[in-house]
Amino acid sequence: MSPRMTARRAIFMLSFIVALFVVIGVRFWSLEVVHGSYYQSLARQDYLREIPVPSPRGNIVTADGVTIATSRPAWSLYYLNQGGPLPTAEVQKLSRLLGTPASQISKTIAKALVQLPSYEPIQIASDLTDAQMTAIEENLATLPNLIIRPIAIRSYPFNSVMGNILGYIGYINRQQYQQLKNQGFSINSLIGQAGLEEEYNTYLHGHGGGVYAEVNSQGQLVRLFGQQVPTPGDTLHLTINWRLEETAQKALAYDMYAMQHANPASSAYSPGAQVGAVVALNPNNGDILAMASLPSYNPNKMVPNTPGQSQYVQKVLNNPLNPLLVRPIYQRYSPGSIFKPIMAVAALASGTVTPTTEIFDPGYFPKLPSFHNWYSPGFGWLNIEQAIGLSDDVFFYTLGYDMGIQTMDHWMDAFLLNKPTGIDLPDETTSIVPTPQYLQQQVGVPWTWGWNLNTAIGQGLDQFTLIALARADSAIANGGTLYWPHLVSEITSPSGKVVKKFHPVVQGHVSAPAFVWQTVYKGMELSAQDPNIKDNVSGTGYGALAGFPIPLASKTGTAQVTGRPNNAFFLTYGPMPHPKILIIVYVRSGNWGANSGFVARAIYDQYFKVKDPEAQTIFDQTFGRPFAWPFGYQPPQPKGP
Predict the structure, then answer these.
(1) In this structure, are strands 122-125 and 368-372 parallel, antiparallel, or unpaired?
(2) At a CB cut-off of 8 Å and minimum separation 6, what does 152 contact?
(3) Cα 70 from chain centroid?
(4) DSSP helix/strand/coil, 180
(5) CB-based contacts of 536: which residues, under 8 Å, 6+ apart?
(6) What are the Cα distances from residue 93, in Å, to 80, 106, 111?
(7) How far apart are CA 365 and CA 367, in angstroms?
(8) Exposure string (b/e) for 520-544, b if CB count within 10 Å is 16 or more?
(9) Per-residue pLDDT tens digits for 34-46
(10) For 124-141, how does the pLDDT look when each residue is reduced to its tens digit (9 = 90+)?
């Protein structure tokens, strides 16, 4: 391009910019100076309404690029609030047009009149259908106090999958408003009320806009003007792998279905298996790869003023299985024998036993014969590797008796079981480490050595969250480092700029010689891989993992519960000897720990891309009737042109 042409273009661009600022200046002069007194007069006479335009909440995206929470365009119906209820005739007519009970419309308005500032427009319905839109627009002449405006509505493309981990949104309450009003939130804001939506609310919320409505003395719309465009919220980028997440929830539901519908003559039969949870993470940095809690809920149906929202919320609240709970972080459990690897580390590192020490198992604990082994004949002489693989109770009763509660408590504290993990979700519960002081406070009796036996096998007063156990067991898998478990890797602005990045956080170290970790690894490998550890008895995890082509480690847990079937737990990690994924599965009333191991196997199929034809036969044998095994890896289908 010639210098003359370049100069002409520069002059043109400069002229254009000057003209643009002149237009903006004239408009500002018109609004603020020429017509300023007019708009102030309108405001004084209550003829001006600001209709809020909520900002689109930021997206939530998985590590593999799947958008699992977003905002979509929709239409919302507002009442141009006159400081009192909508006239009865209009409520009745609107009820017919929307297909919503008149009482519900009146209740929505009455609640808003109490909560919102005077004359603030009130949202009556959001996400209007085409039919509702047409019906209202055709009748606006007889509904003069109403206006339809575009909004961005929260949307969860996968419905209940990961629903209670994502959380839901709802109207801000007065207490929340007082806490958030200086961070860009208004009294009519929709905010996260649970899960990730709540935890990262200030990032996801964005900054709302608005449009002014001039109304006449009857509150009827004259015109709209002065629109301020909202700014979308930031995007959360998760550590979650969506393929693993979907598999975790679907496999957990399927495993519980198999328990409920197993052959009644089978020990796997458990009609009460309706509640469960899964945590899968990278033990080397704390990244959570999948997390599921069932039953879940559909957060789409929790969005305020959407069709059927009130009824769905009541259904969720009245569900005795409590879908709102994020079980991996909120509930505490006696984990049964998946606690034994931690006690094995304690016994080895404290010098209570060595890798070659053998303890005799006659089928019961000789000092207290009422404490028996799950395998009644007893396994005879065992070392600690065999005891872990066979989940031998007598061996661990002996460790608990010999260590005593002070030594066990020391090592539980070393694994940070006495501290919350600080996971980036609200309402985490702190685990309970059994101590003589706690027993005295709760039960009013002194500690006796019998409590040591239960403590060592994950029963009695042991009460741990799954996420705390996952952090502790990750330290076993990686050789002693305790990482912060977390769900978000980074946050970006709408323009793609990195707002915040999360790096691995080391929360502690468990100091133990290398032989300690190696011994526990070997015992857990026997559990997962050995078909005959002793007396033709396989490792307890072998029943769920037999034939899997990747070397794995595992530990089962079958925790006794008064008044109902045992809870089932399954701990596993792999590939050995350098694990990259750790999984804990829980099924309430699941009967046997190994039966919950199929959930982990399904996750492994996807993680290691294993087609796994052998799983079908093992699954059918376990549950005593033919089932499909839909979790073998299938490569993604290529997209069409």
Answers:
(1) unpaired
(2) 54, 55, 56, 57, 71, 72, 73, 74, 230, 232
(3) 16
(4) helix
(5) none
(6) 16, 12, 20
(7) 6
(8) bbbbbbbbbbbeebbeebbbbbbbb
(9) 444 544 544 444 5
(10) 888 888 899 899 888 888
